[in-house]
């Protein structure tokens, strides 16, 4: 596999997983970030100053920023970084390429400590490169990559389109 293909695959997986994460869970993940990761995360997804103070709009702002700045991978990596550190610290040398069994033994503690969504985001990050994670997303229902919802484009309203055309014609006349 090549790097570009892997990156596209990981990005698609993140898009599918983020689509299944509830707003309250996304907000909780962002608020749980340690101070050292809050600023890089906020810059990556384009959060304005004080965005962490308004929990009611935080998830929507994160989702909008991830798409607008094309930072879905970065957002997934940063939101799961505390969980990733836990796995690396706990697995030690085995963290370079953990087995499926290694991962399964740590997952209950990780879910309790960081939430299932954080562990899912971490699994996506390594799902292309490492065999244990690849097996995890293929075999464990909690971590399977959901099928992406088909994009349904709304048909523009004919009256609305005509109003826009009329407004454009009027602007051109001026």
Keywords for this entry:
single chain; 174 residues; mainly alpha; 9 helices; 71% helix; elongated
The helicity comes to: over 70%
The fraction of residues assigned to DSSP E strands is: under 5%
**Gap between N and C termini:** 56 Å
Order of helices and strands: HHHHHHHHH
Q: What's the story with the biggest beta sheet?
A: none
Classification by helices and strands: mainly alpha
Quaternary status of these chains?
Answer: single chain
The total count of helices amounts to 9
Radius of gyration: 20 Å
- Report mean pLDDT, rounded to a whole number: 88
Number of domains: 1
Number-wise, the strands total 0
Q: What would the principal axes of the Cα set say about the shape?
A: elongated
Q: Uncertain spans, ≥5 residues at pLDDT below 50?
A: none
């Amino acid at each position: 596999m090549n790097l570009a293909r892997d990156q596209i695959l990981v990005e698609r997986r993140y898009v599918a997983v983020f689509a299944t994460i509830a707003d309250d869970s996304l907000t909780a993940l962002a608020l749980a970030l340690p101070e050292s990761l809050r600023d890089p995360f906020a810059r990556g997804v384009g959060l304005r100053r004080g965005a962490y103070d308004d929990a009611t709009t935080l998830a929507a702002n994160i989702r909008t920023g991830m798409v607008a700045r094309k930072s879905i991978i970065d957002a997934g990596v940063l939101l799961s970084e505390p969980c990733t550190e836990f796995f690396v610290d706990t697995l030690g040398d085995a963290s370079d390429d953990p087995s499926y069994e290694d991962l399964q033994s740590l997952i209950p503690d990780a879910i309790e400590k960081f939430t299932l969504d954080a562990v899912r985001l971490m699994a996506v990050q390594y799902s292309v490169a490492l065999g244990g994670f690849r097996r995890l997303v293929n075999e464990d229902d909690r971590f399977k990559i959901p099928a992406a919802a088909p994009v349904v484009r709304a048909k523009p309203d004919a009256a609305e389109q005509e109003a826009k055309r009329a407004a454009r014609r009027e602007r051109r006349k001026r």
